[in-house]
Amino acid sequence: MEERASIPPGLPRPNPTVSYWQDPPSHLANHRTTPDLPKTTDILVIGSGITGSSLAYNILNQPSPHSVLLLEARTACSGATGRNGGHTKCASYRDILGNVRDLGEEEAAKIMRLQYNTMRAIHAFAREHGIQCDSVQGDTVDVFYDQGQVEKARKAVAEIKRVLGEKDPAARYIFYSAEETEKKFLAQGSLGSLQYEAGSLSAYKFVIGVLDLALKKDLNLQTTTPALKIARNEDCQEGWTVYTPRGEVKVKKLLLATNGYTAHLYPTLQGVIVPLRGHMTAQRPGSGIPKEGLGGTYSFIYDSNYEYMIPRPPGSKFAGDIMIGGGAARAPNEGLFEWGETDDTTTDDFIRSYLEDCTKKYFGTNWGEDDPEGRLRKAWTGVMGFSADGFPLVGQVPGEEDLYIAASFQGNGMVLCFEIARALVAIMNKEDEKELNRWFPKAFRMTSERTKHKFQGKLHSKVSPMDLELKSQG
Predict the structure, then answer these.
(1) Which residues of 73-101 are buried (b: 16+ CB within 10 A; e: fewer)?
(2) Most buried pick, 56, 190, 367, 442, via CB within 10 A?
(3) Domains in the chain, start-ordered, CATH in brackets?
């Protein structure tokens, strides 16, 4: 892992795989607000995913006006956000035992509530602003294929109910037997399941909607404008210079929303934030799957990892289609080769084939016959960011005046980034620290101590098993 973590991420590559969501591309895909790059700006945000777009929106809705420039290396929302599965799912039970042990009950509760509140806030924001992004709020089910995971889930849910209280909506979890699981969710061969609140949407359409709102507030969006490097301004005491192929921009404050690519611009974080390439597929459902689509989202949990699945809702493009991602843990050497990998222009043959095959295996005879046009509609990859301690890095970069970061979301950004952006703007504006500490976890704060820890493996992450000592059967 040390070798993989030391690979420089480089810039986002041209001509990446096209995700299901990006076909066709949005009206902002190649947007440039002004023909030329401005020479100066108050605030510059690098990255146009859910973090960068939310940062720009929050800054532009502050009482004091600022000029805001947002740079994107490729097309708008072409990174991880535009390539995910569209899942707004907390799965806090997977982390609660370790978080209570390591951080204490109060901080563990803050993390759970931030995730839950972010999940709800995204869908509420889409409704409030009329963003057409196939937003669906409902339930998800985690289907278990390992008894150890079932037992740990029961302990974890009991701990959540103890910490948050039985009546807290974030503590609503329902267990089902294997027989109930097949009857209710059509999944065969399981050891049972766990149902709780979640949702789904097109994260790509959501971000384009946020960018549209920010543009109405005078955001300057410049796509296909990679930031090649950053440097402190030498001719004055404040600010930074951002170098691009189209010229230099002097900025008063610089915000990095660059996730797995962050070390390219700030090499001190090499090995602190490590990229992980993930795979997604869009599949046509079998004849046994309800034509109106399955009733909620899924995860299929085995002892070393899981796959996650999101059915497309009625009324959406290709309604009933199944989005399923993951699979790396089933690859040779448990997918070690995907760590440090930022090439999203291609897919791995083994992982793609595994994902294509696993849907029928999870549903068994309930899947029915494959669609005459074939099961696989599309496959693509995207680059996530993971940190050494398993938590996001949010705040001012230690020792670097006017440089801020929000990155490393452990593959769980859809229930983190929207509210984290609000927190980072508060940090940048030096707002009431007591109020921020009331809801924002200390574990997420950027500190010099956290930059000393190099990545050794997954911790507290959405895609890790709850017990790192579990050994793979696969």
Answers:
(1) bbbbbbbbbbbbbbbbbbbbbbbbbbbbe
(2) 56
(3) 2-83+205-273+389-452 (3.50.50.60), 138-198+275-385 (3.30.9.10)
